[in-house]
Amino acid sequence: MKKTPDFQTIPKIMVLLSLLAGSVSAQIQPDSATQFVVVKGTVDSSYRPRAGVLISARRSGKNTRTDGAGKFELLILRTDTLTFTYSGMPVRSYAFFQLTGDVALSFDLVTAEGQQVAIENDKGDAQTVDKNALPMFPWPVPQPSARYVLEDRYFATARTLSQVDKQLSSALQKSHYPGSSYYLIPNGFAMVNQIEQIEPDGAPKADPAERWSLQVQPLRKFDLGNYLRLLFTSATGHFRVVVFLVTNEMTPPSSLEPDLPTAKAWLNRGGDYLPEAIGKQPYGSGYHVTALIYEFQKPENGQARPVDPSKNSGQIHLTKSNFIPNLSR
């Protein structure tokens, strides 16, 4: 059996993590008379103090918030788990085991580049990092071209966020979407789908190779109207990214519009699946599923630009893609 080190020999533990493009630094001091340690630290974002961050200890049942200077202090069990939550979003959890050495952690929640968390410890077992954290989707959300709140009846039998995820994923799979990625939003999650090329009326391109390509194809089938139009203008591609938001929070959009490369990158920067810790959260009163449609037009030899607003409603987009018919099955 591994011997627990004497409290007097436990050195100070330094924990450093980046939060919202900033950091949390904490100094853990052992209390030799009890099974507890005092955690003191400062949370900042872009080198400015971050007030109102909730720090919760799972086993001890203790919690506190950072003050106006971004400082906090909390007494926790030596083998406790700390969770940092900001604006209702659990950004990262840390589980501590036999604090025996220096620990350094870092991650970037804003850019969501998927940086590997670095763990340094003299025994390698002083702490583990909860892998349930997801990168944060831009909040408030970027201005969409169209939006649609799905009817509650589609999710009448859902009791957890995981069950909603399964229903969405099933309908997307039946609609031939190749994959999704996941992000954290307040009290829920966002599901981003692969960018697709569509017809002007919102229907996906019939040819899968063309549907999932960012290349604008020249006119293939003769049509007098298209032929006359192409005499004076270049071919224009229409593209769409569908993002589902599952939350009980209002989702007012910002005034910023994403460009095509940004929307395309969302798929690669999110999580591969919905973590269990998020999925088991209850889906109930006040929760809704909102679809955000980000549409772009791209001339054959030009730069893509966002369409605001789309000439098609969010409901039309989801119906033309066969998502709503498949969700109803």
TrEMBL record:
Q: Which GO molecular function annotation, any one, does this entry have?
A: carboxypeptidase activity
Q: Which InterPro entries match?
A: CarboxyPept-like_regulatory
- Composition bias, kind Polar residues: at what positions? 310-329
Q: Where is the signal peptide?
A: 1-26
The region called Disordered is annotated at 301-329
Q: Any keyword Hydrolase?
A: yes
Kindly state which keywords UniProt assigns to this record, in alphabetical order.
Carboxypeptidase, Hydrolase, Protease, Signal
**What name does this protein carry?**
Carboxypeptidase regulatory-like domain-containing protein
Recall the taxonomic lineage recorded for the source organism: Bacteria, Pseudomonadati, Bacteroidota, Cytophagia, Cytophagales
